Amino acid sequence: MADPVTIALATALVTGAAAKISEHAGETVVEGLKRLQRAVFKRFRGDAAAQEALDEARVDSDDPAAIEAVAEHLERAAAEDPEIGSLVRELRGQVSQRSEGSVSNRITGGVSGNARVFQGGNVQGEIRL
After folding, report:
1. Averaged over 15-31, what is the pLDDT?
2. Strand (E) positions, the chain?
3. Distance from chain centroid for Cα 97
4. What is the pLDDT of residue 70?
5. Can you say whether residue 84 is alpha, beta or left, with left for phi > 0 and alpha for psi between -120 and 50 degrees?
6. What is the largest CA-CA distance in the chain?
7. Of 64 and 104, the one with more pLDDT
């Protein structure tokens, strides 16, 4: 199963969300989504199964299974195609997951040796480290 960010990217590709989110997202995200959409559509034209998944999802973009199928093809394309992989990594770095009550951490670089990462929410009482 694809991760939530890949599902979101697949949904944006299927629904053409790049144009719709322009007032909420930065220009680089919108342009990145448009470039990803062009690259993915071009690649999927040469792959009958991927094109069929895309077509099915475009017919019913509310079908989670259809979006999941596109996300799986997107993951494979990102692994095989350097341009698509680069665009996905770029967008992944610009997009953060948000939901009420959630905590999201982004850690870059090596976390080893004495480095530690702690995440908590709704802590009641003391925390001693």
Report:
1. 68
2. none
3. 9
4. 94
5. alpha
6. 58
7. 64
Q: Which amino acid is at 39?
A: A
Task: Please say whether the beta carbons of 75 and 3 come within 8 A.
Answer: no
Q: Which one-letter amino acid corresponds to residue 17?
A: A
Query: Do 108 and 16 form a contact (C-beta atoms < 8 A)?
Result: no
How is 21-82 classified by DSSP, letter by letter? Answer: TTTTS-HHHHHHHHHHHHHHHHHHHT-HHHHHHHHHHHH-TT-HHHHHHHHHHHHHHHHH-H
The pLDDT mean for the chain works out to 79
User: Does 111 or 31 have the greater pLDDT score?
Assistant: 31
Q: Which amino acid is at 128?
A: R
Are the C-beta atoms of residues 80 and 44 closer than 8 Å to each other?
no
